[in-house]
Give the backbone structure.
Amino acid sequence: MAISQEDLRTVMDRGVAEIIDRNEFRKLLDRDKPLRLKMGFDPSSPDIHLGHTVGLRKLRQLQELGHKVMLIVGDWTAQIGDPSGVSATRPVLTHEQVQENAQTYMTQFFKVVDRDRTEVFWQSEWFGKFDLADVVRLTGPFTVAQMLAREDFRRRWDANRPIAITELLYPLLQAYDSVVVESDVEFGGTDQKFNLLMGRELQEMRGQRPQQCFMVPILVGTDGVQKMSKSLGNYIGVDDAPEEQYGKALSLPDDLIIPYFNLLSDLPTAEIDDMSSAMEGGANPMEFKKRLAREIVATFWSEEDAAAAQAHFEQTVQRGEAPDEAPTLWFARSDGVSGAVAVSSEQGGAKTLVSLSTVEFLYHHHAELGLSQSRTAAKRLVSQGAVEVDGQPAGDTLSLRDGSVVRVGKRRYLRLLEDRS
Amino acid sequence: MAISQEDLRTVMDRGVAEIIDRNEFRKLLDRDKPLRLKMGFDPSSPDIHLGHTVGLRKLRQLQELGHKVMLIVGDWTAQIGDPSGVSATRPVLTHEQVQENAQTYMTQFFKVVDRDRTEVFWQSEWFGKFDLADVVRLTGPFTVAQMLAREDFRRRWDANRPIAITELLYPLLQAYDSVVVESDVEFGGTDQKFNLLMGRELQEMRGQRPQQCFMVPILVGTDGVQKMSKSLGNYIGVDDAPEEQYGKALSLPDDLIIPYFNLLSDLPTAEIDDMSSAMEGGANPMEFKKRLAREIVATFWSEEDAAAAQAHFEQTVQRGEAPDEAPTLWFARSDGVSGAVAVSSEQGGAKTLVSLSTVEFLYHHHAELGLSQSRTAAKRLVSQGAVEVDGQPAGDTLSLRDGSVVRVGKRRYLRLLEDRS
C-alpha cells in the first residue's frame, strides 16, 4: 500500500524500541494486502494505563494505513492461572470473571484502537481442544537450554529460584497463537522480545512466513523513575476520570514532557522538537505540560473533558479554590458536626462554629472525602500535613467556620455550610 | 497375605537392587488385598531379552503370592516417537505397528508372567483424551531444576547437550500412569529410579498412597562387561531359538554363572551357594554352565527343548560334528558346485571333488549358510579365520570332498554331498 515518507518515519521511528527485522517490515508495508497485526493480552489484569497505549497507538497508526489488528484474548492462560514458582496459589479466575475482565479490557482498548479494523480471537478457540499430542508436537523441537536463555528465566535459574515446567510452555503457547492467526507482525514491549521471537521460529517450522516483531519502548511512570505500572502506583489509567488524568499528568517531572509527547500524542515530531528547544531556551515547562495533559485527556475522553479538567485544575490547585462541585456538609451549630465528636461549639473568634479532632473528622466523614474508613490512615494524613482548612495546614484540632473548605491531599475537598433552618 | 520366611527372603533379597521403602513394602506384603504391581513398556522396542526378565521373574514370584500385575502398554509414547535432543527424526510408528509390536512384546512377556493375574492397560486410554489443562495441572507443581536433577538429564545439561522440553514431560507422564492404575508398587531397573520416585510424588499430590519403587539389578551381557542390550549384541533373547539360547549361555564368562543363576532361575539359594563353593574348590565350571543354559531354555521353551539344545551343542561344538539337521548342498562333479565359480574339478588327492574360491563359495551360498549377500562380509569372515572345512581352517581356496562339512562361525554348517545321479 502506498505510504508517505512522513507516515513511514512515524511508524518506523517514533515510539519504536526495536523491529525484527526492519527491512522485511518495510517491505511488508508496501504489499497490497492488509497486514495482520497481532497483539495479545492477559485478562487477569484488565486495566490499561498509558504505558500500554504506546503499543496501541502504533496499532492505530497502522490501522489508519489500512492494516488489521488481531486481538488475542488470553482467556485460556488466565483460566489456568499463573503457575510461577512453587506457590501455585494464585486464585484461578472463573469463566465469568475472565469474560468480564476481557470486556473491561476491550472497552479501554478500543478507546485507542479502531474496533472496525480489529478481529478478536479467544485462545480457548484453539487451546480448548489442544491435546497431549499437540503439546508434544509443540514442545518437541525446543530445548530446555533455549528457554532458559530467556532473561527472566536465566536470572531465576542462576539464583536457584524455582521455574515450573509449565512456565516453559508459555512462550510456546504464545508462539502458537501467532501460527493460528497467521500473524504478520506481533507487537509487545521490549520485555516480550523472547516470546515474539518464539513466534517467528514456530511459524517458520510450521511453514509460515515468520512474523515481524515490533517492540515499543517501556514508558517511565509519573514518578520519573520506574516503569509505569499499576502496582507501583505511578500510572495514569485509560479509565481514570479526566481530572485525575489531568492532575497526574501535571505531576510529571519536566524531563518526561518531551518523551510523553513523542510516545503518547499525534503532534508532529517537528512541533515537539520546537517545544524541546523552547524549554532548553528557558521557557516555562508548565504550559507544555498542560498541553500534554490536555492531549492525554482528549485522547481517552474528549476535547470538552480536557478543557473542563484544565479549568478544574487551575481553579483548585493553582488558585487553591475548592472546586465548584466539592461536596457540601451541612451542619447545625448546636449539634456540632454530624457524626463527629464535637469538642466545643462556639469557641475562639466570632466565626468559629465548631472545633474538633482532625482525625475524628476525617474518620467520620471518610465517605464524603473518598478516604478509607480507618483512624490509622486518618492519623497518617494529619501527620503528613496532607490536611488543610481554608488554605492553612490543619493541626490535631480542626477549627471550622461557615463556608470553610477542608482539603485532603491534592484533590479531595469538603465544603462546610451552616444549617440555619 | 501369609508369606513364608523363605518366600519373603527370595522376594526381598534375591534379584533386588533397591526398594523404596523396604519397611512399607514389607507391610504391604502382609495386607489382605492383592497388591497392584505396575510395570510399563515401550512398544517401540518389543523384544525382551534376559536382562528384562530379571524384573519379570520378580512379578511372577509376587503373582504366585497372590498379587496382580498392571501391565502398561506405552502405546501413546511410542506413537509420538522419541523427541530426544535436536534430531526429532525417529520415524513415528503407525497405530498398526504399535499394536503389532505390543502383541510381540506380550507374547514374550507372558512366557514369564502369569497372564491370568495380569491386567493390561493402554496409555492411550487416558492420554488420548488428555488436554492442555491436564498438562498444565500435571507440570505446574514440578520445577525445571527438579527434572534436571535426574542423572541422565544432568549429565547432558552439564555437557551442553540438548534436552527437549518434551523430554521433561516423560517422567511426569509415567508418573501419571501410576495415578491412573493406582499402583502399589512400580517395577523397573535402577536406571528408572527417578521416574519411579516421580510416581510416588505425584500419587501423594493426588491423594493416593505413594507407590513403592522396586528396582532390579541391571544384568551384565554375555560379553561379561556391559549391560545386556540388543544394540550391543551381547544379549540372549526370550524369543531366540533353543539352540541359540543354549549356545549363547555356554559362551558366558565363568564368573557370570552364579549371578545368572541368582537372577534368572528358581534354584534355591542354598543350592546356588553350593555350586559357587564347588567352583571355588576347583570343580569344572562347564557342567554348571550347561545346567544354567538348560534352565534358561526350559524357562522360555520346555524341558525337552532344553535337552535337545544340549544334545545339539555336544554334537556340534564339543565333538565338532555337523548337526544332523545341517543343510545339504548336492553337486555333480562335472558341474562344479552349483552357482559357484569352479576353479578346477578333480585336482590334488583322489577325494577332492572341487576346489574353488572361499569368498565366492560363501557369496553364492549365503542363503543356505544364513549369511548376508556380500562379498565384503565374506572376505571378512575368511580373513578372521571364521571358515572351516572338516575341522580345518579354510584358506582363500576351498577344497571340498564328498561329505565335507563347511562351518562358518560357531553355528552355521553346510554339508556337501556328491550328486551321482
Q: What stands out?
A: Confidence is low (pLDDT under 50) at residues 83-89, 335-350 of chain A. The longest strand of chain A covers residues 412-418.
